[in-house]
Amino acid sequence: MRGRSLRFLVPLVATLALIGGACGSKDNSSPPAAGGGGGGTTPSPSFSTLKQGVLQVGSCLDYPPFEAVKNGTETGFDVELTDAIAEKMGLQVQWVKANFDTIFTAVAGHQFDMVAAAVTATGSTGSKRAQTVAFSDFYFDSLQGFTVNTTKTPSITSTDDLSSGDVVGVQKGTTGEVWAEENLQSKGVQIKSYTDAIDAFRDLDGGAIVGTIVDDPTSVEVANTQFPDLKVVQPIETHEKYALAFAQDTPELVSAVNDALHQVIDDGDYERIYHKYFPGATIPSEYQPGGSSASASP
Known about the structure:
By secondary structure, the chain is of the alpha/beta class. It has nine helices and 15 strands.
């Protein structure tokens, strides 16, 4: 399915400080172009994209195993799932690299058509994001992970072992940041926010901080593949579900993506992609053929 993607990145050239005022409103200077609705496996609802025949997708592209760039090629669970969805819609995929903490105002301002970036659409964070963007149906269940440097702080085996003055790294604008602020700051733990999650892991590996709170699948992937001294010592159940994000004034596109997502699940493509990136893990019933993924709409 990945052969349908345009294998290059498009820089986010618009000044993100100007995007904030466009939240929830359509940028009439660059309205979506007509596109889609007939090139997939089965007919899809009529929809528009910014560029004819192309689904422009915003992502930070540095959050394995969901999205990353290796040898100049986009890869990861979100990448392959997006490719499969676009295939059903008769579209090519064009990736746009963007910072996660500004990605929602960017899609609301029509800098790209969709966000695929391990986006939590549940809980208070999801409700807050829903004030700016529209969500697809859910496509992945997740939780947070507490990672430590087992060489430098072997005695820390859970967040209960943290002391006042300890510094924990999080990615800015994420549910991990929210959880850490709500659960650790009252103990005197300092929260350090990073634009890129990988930088938090680098500081943890170097001993500059004592732990990270980042989505568990990413924490496990990074620890296992990049930093052998790091270990996820505590999974934190937060009942998070991921969804794709869109500008609120593109309901037809959201509907078409939902239709394509369910086709990908029902034809077994989702299962193939899931097991590629999470071998041995059990797929929740709603993401199995014949299941019914719940809507992320409030």
